[in-house]
């Protein structure tokens, strides 16, 4: 059984997003039926809508930063009730049986997790559809509790941009006394600064743009380091305990590697594409590490949301109507947003 709901999506890589009708399954005993109030706009949405990763199945309905209220719960659901403020991030299912899943690392499911959109739909067939829609039905295990004290709109990007930056900071145990660099001030970078600062680290924003210094400090950075200033970079060589690299495209790695202390780590969360070659000697001389990180598991995402509730952390956003999404995509590509668009889904219901 299925139900028809309003959505926004695209029927081809070269076509704009437009209003569509999509099918959602009728909730079963283990499902939570959510009325979506806000949905964040992630660059991954654009990559998928435009088939830039060459794996899109159309029609594509993006959106994996979902905030909403519970409308209905199945008979076996125990953690949620009607009216609860909840979130859905990048995943809506996984096998729950493999070693990564048993370690609460569903994003690394050996059988492949079911992403919120553009994944094979195990219930209705076809592919999954994301949060650019009025409603969604999700298994209880993949629904998250959102603290009622934080702003709903600003909470939406926490479900992707938030967990993407929280997970490496948490995994590498960043905390008080650590000197942490955040490379790139955008949707991911601004969250990295907020989290690292709240964790008690000394935070250095590393950027090519001098005009971003004011924003960096207001977000919680203690210093701003211009990567184009060779003398300044040399003065801070071998001094960082951890670097969070949010640059979304291939780039030179050696300047950032040189900043790391012995045994320190730089984690990549932005560049899902080839990187420029770097000199092996720069990591050998210092036993330095380059690592990657992909979103986070459900338990870790809940931990992040609870932390945000305790510290009143949300994303800096610009609220838009659903009908403005195509213009918003162009602005994201042009880096013309501070720092994340969020869609008011009431505009699709009106």
Key terms for this structure?
350 residues, alpha/beta, Quinone Oxidoreductase, Chain A, domain 1, Rossmann fold, seven-stranded mixed beta sheet
What gap, in angstroms, lies between the N and C termini?
A: 26 Å
What is the second-level CATH architecture of the largest domain?
A: Alpha-Beta Complex
Number of strands: 17
Percent of residues in beta strands: 25-35%
Main sheet specs: 7 strands, mixed
And the CATH topology of the largest domain?
Answer: Quinone Oxidoreductase, Chain A, domain 1
Count of separate DSSP helical elements = 12
Mean pLDDT: 97
How many domains comprise the coordinates? 2
How would you portray this structure in words?
- The chain is of the alpha/beta class.
- The chain has two domains: 2-160 and 316-349, Alpha-Beta Complex (Quinone Oxidoreductase, Chain A, domain 1); 164-292, 3-Layer(aba) Sandwich (Rossmann fold).
- It has helices spanning 43-49, 99-102, 152-155, 161-171, 187-198, 213-219, 230-235, 254-257, 281-284, 298-311, 325-333, 346-349; strands at 2-9, 18-25, 31-40, 66-73, 85-88, 91-93, 114-115, 135-139, 144-145, 179-183, 202-207, 223-226, 240-245, 260-268, 289-292, 317-321, 340-344.
- The strands form four sheets. Strands 3, 4, 5, 8, 9, 16 and 17 form a seven-stranded mixed sheet that branches.
- Helix 4 (161-171) packs across helix 5.
